[in-house]
Amino acid sequence: MNICCLDLEGVLVPEIWIALAEASGIPALTRTTRDEPDYGKLMAWRMDILGEHGLSLTDIQEVISTMEPLPGSREFLDRLREKSQVIIISDTFEEFAQPLMRKLGWPTIFCNALDIDGDGMLAGVHMRCANSKLATVRGLHAIGFETIAAGDSYNDIAMIRASKAGFLFRTTDTIKAGNPDLPAYETYEELLAAFEDELGRTVRTSG
To answer: Is 7 marked active-site?
Structure first.
């Protein structure tokens, strides 16, 4: 029994923080998990910048409400969901994800939550668990599922390697160079074919 696990930002939707950087004119916010492997360090740094510039959750949500899924991502996700159960496993937050999930047809997403102070400012984060992507696929394995995973950033590598198969998608040259054994794809057609091939391999093996 298989579950396909996908990262969100950079795979199905644009990077939220890059969109916020462009909308706010704060270039420092373009730093993402493609650049910084330590997610806790990255989020602390982001919250400091938001506080310095007085950007509230409402300001961020207004930017997110204007975002659209990456071209072709909805069709890719719909076709993959015809073949297998799919879970999006993301380090983003419930407060950010909802409008994007609506545009993607309400797929299942496992993500985190924010701590918001009385002024509507980001005051902290509530992570579901440590190493949430890796912990999630291990939890799925513990209840009898096999996982096939794809992502684009440093924080996706562990869940990809823990899965029976996994792929990089539209990642950086640095990440590809550091993981030369992982197949890397640039189009949804290639990625869908890779998932379908692995799903078909399971059927052939079990048969």
So the answer is: yes
